[in-house]
Amino acid sequence: MKTFSKVITGSLLALAMAGCTVGGSSASAASSASAVSTDTSKIMIGIVQLVQHPALDSATKGFVDELKSEINLTDANFDIQNASGDSATCSTIANAFVSEKADLILANATAALQAAKNATTSIPVLGTSVTEYGTALGISNFNGTPGGNVSGTSDLAPLDQQADMFTELLPNAKNIGILYCSGEPNSVYQVQKVTEYLKAKGLNVTSYPFTDTNDVAQVTQSAAASSDALYIPTDNTAASATETIYNVTSKTKTPIIAGEEGICSGCGIATLSIDYYELGKTTGKMAAKILKGEEDISKMEIEYYKNPKKEYNAKICQELGIEVPSDYTAIASN
Question: What is the pTM of this model?
Answer without folding.
Answer: 0.81
